[in-house]
Amino acid sequence: MENVISSLQTLCVTAGSKIVLALLIFIVGRIVIDRLLRIMQNVKAFGKADPTVRSFLLNFCKVGLYVVLVISIINVLGVPMASVVTVLASAGVAVGMALQGSLSNLAGGIMLLIFRPFGVGDYIAAAGEEGTVKEITLFYTVLITLDNKRITIPNGALMNANVTNFSSEPTRRVDLVFSCGKGEDIQKIRSLMLGVIEKNSQIHKDPAPFVEFSGGTNESMEFTVRAWTTNAEYWDVYFALTRDITEAMGAAGIHAPAARVIMENR
Questions:
Q1: pLDDT (tens digit, 9 = 90+) per residue, 198-240?
Q2: pTM of the complete model
Q3: Would you say the C-alpha torsion 21, 23, 26, 28 has a positive or negative sign?
Q4: Has domain 171-251 been given CATH number 3.40.50.2000?
Q5: Helix (H, G, I), strand (E, B) or coil at 255
Q6: Where does 102-165 sit in CATH, by number?
Q7: What are the residue ranges spanned by the domains of the chain?
Q8: Could you count the other beta carbons within 10 Å of the beta carbon of residue 55?
Q9: In the β-sheet with 171-181, what is the strand arrangement from edge to edge?
């Protein structure tokens, strides 16, 4: 009986020491991983890298370091690595089926890094959402909308969706449509709109701005306005033209379309 108790005490002491050592390794390992990631971020060459590549590499290194930490803890606890490998191999098919979506997202993240349809800081529309790309991780891409909402999209869905990148080109065209009452002088309105466009220094001369009568209804005429500007000044030009042309048409006495009133038969 004494031998059994002695063996149990020895086993408890041995197991307890391993558990304590494993906890210490976990705590120290987390501190070391955080330090390594901070050092990596402060390296000049890494700081000059593209934000998309930088974000992806940080996430990749973080996952890799934690995998090494977990393997070290398993080894300290005395679990034979051969047994671990055998169990993982046996459960490989089941794990692969369970993680099919995650693996698809991981593959999507790698493809996004290779083909680069967009980068951090770009404004995009994809998978039914749009916003500024804040972060591209191994599995997800994070967008921030104009009203400051955070949207997380799986990378697998992004790779299988049509992506519109509004920030990829240095210039962008502003397209607007204005309407006025039927019977107004077309050339007068065209000249008025072109005059407003010429006063805006943010609008490019080449390609030349476009103003033309483009259709209408029984009560109105429509004019299409197209003007090129830099991507960063797109919204400034958009709102400026909307305001200035509307004010100029009002000052020139251009009539608005007549309101249509539909009367019900009673």
A1: 999 999 999 999 999 998 888 899 999 999 999 999 999 999 9
A2: 0.61
A3: negative
A4: no
A5: coil
A6: 2.30.30.60
A7: 14-90, 102-165, 171-251
A8: 22
A9: 171-181, 220-230, 210-216
